């Protein structure tokens, strides 16, 4: 095992020390619940009769006779999400594989799964971030039946996997294996899709041509192929050890995909407390696993949404992660992959070039990942392998020696850049993050007057009226969790991209989100404290000169500090944005959401209500 990079080792140790008390309390909780026998044996006869009543005869006999372990399935299936549509048939596959492994499998519950691609720029996007914590609570309801010896979690997309992880860790005495569905085959090339979107934003092509391009991009079952939050989730599950090696990016509907699903079921049956390889999720995931996840995020140029989700997931296991940890890890982690929006290629091309096995081997070999922590399939040092079918049997081979395409995937010795491209942004305007991996160096530093907007619709209207043909910093405020649920502002990307292509210096500063598809626009997002809670963005006025420097990680305003502090902050005025489409039902979530730099979660480190 190579020596650990000293910065990675130092960050891991400070997370451990910072989390000492909360982690100890968490471990005490889950260890107190370690089963001494099959979980269902503590049930009364009436409880157990209800738990087994719907099973097939063989499974019912084993549940009532206590002969086999019971695997609970938490599924995010719905057939509106292309990424989740394949899960329709997974329970049948899993039940059969479990029976062959001497186990029972039951669907314990379903969780909501909204598609950000459908709600992007729409009112429903204001429920998106909060759906993560609803998913965690929904998963907890399914698992609270407390008759399960292991769990399989079926989920792929944006808030769904983080919500499932939070629940898996709150039930951390249960072994958990995450089971993906895989990306759809490649469709319209990403640069062409971007070109059509920008032409539509300028009014140069019509809606029919735009719809044709979008439909050719998102065209069948499977995850969207760009490297946004959904595919970043799959990378994370692999580098954190909750997947089987190489499970992330195998296409749905293939024999290999089904073989991996069967193998995940068999592995879940093998790692229960009743066997000799007990791997409870809450002990398997520790500060080393979390650091591995952040390293993987930086090495692949993954979604900025994980600056929210990783702290929230870690907190569920009593582990305290801060934005400084992201920034310091980014500073020493080389960028090894260019996947759209950081390059023209998609995740299928990444997978073909060597994919996760090559990436893991390179990061482990460079001392940037902890190979000594455990995954569901064994030590993470063994995750640099790739699955194949040989005569119908699932086998794993070592990662390829070389990348098949150096324009997509590079070795650690010859990276695209020496750092991971995520910056902590801090200064007079608060704290946030900036993703610079897809931003040209010439666009990473600017000073320009602010133009302040209280909604993304207002910015779009100003663009359509021809009022934005100049250098400026767009301040889009009242977009945080307490204001309107922190929707993604991805719909601003074409507008700002057009202005940048026209030669103007533009940047975005917001307390909202931009997702993994933020692309080439310099931005400071997740700004905290948010404007709706009196944060500095509420005091910015049109014409204030903002100094944005994502190379140094600074974000300041050229206004005398005494003058700025004395300003009366603009007041957030809830209006129709908090009503309709169920948004009024989430007023509690807006009221009690944590700050963005701590994950914008409803939960504390031990999971109690705030």
From TrEMBL:
Domain Dihydroxy-acid/6-phosphogluconate dehydratase C-terminal: 407-600
EC number, UniProt record: 4.2.1.12
Cofactor(s) the protein needs: [4Fe-4S] cluster
KW Cell membrane (keyword) present: no
InterPro entries in the record: 6-phosphgluc_deHydtase, Dihydro-acid_dehy_C, DiOHA_6PGluconate_deHydtase_CS, ILV_EDD_C, ILV_EDD_N, IlvD/EDD_N
Pathway of action: Carbohydrate metabolism; Entner-Doudoroff pathway
Record has Transmembrane helix as a keyword: no
The record's free-text note on cofactor binding: Binds 1 [4Fe-4S] cluster.
Catalyzed chemical reaction(s): 6-phospho-D-gluconate = 2-dehydro-3-deoxy-6-phospho-D-gluconate + H2O
Keyword annotations: 4Fe-4S, Carbohydrate metabolism, Gluconate utilization, Iron, Iron-sulfur, Lyase, Metal-binding
Entry binding sites for [4Fe-4S] cluster: 157, 224
GO cellular component terms, semicolon-separated: cytosol
GO MF: 4 iron, 4 sulfur cluster binding; metal ion binding; phosphogluconate dehydratase activity
Xref: PROSITE patterns: ILVD_EDD_1, ILVD_EDD_2
UniProt record similarity statement: Belongs to the IlvD/Edd family.
Function per UniProt: Catalyzes the dehydration of 6-phospho-D-gluconate to 2-dehydro-3-deoxy-6-phospho-D-gluconate.
Record protein name field: Phosphogluconate dehydratase
Species of provenance: Hyphomonas chukchiensis
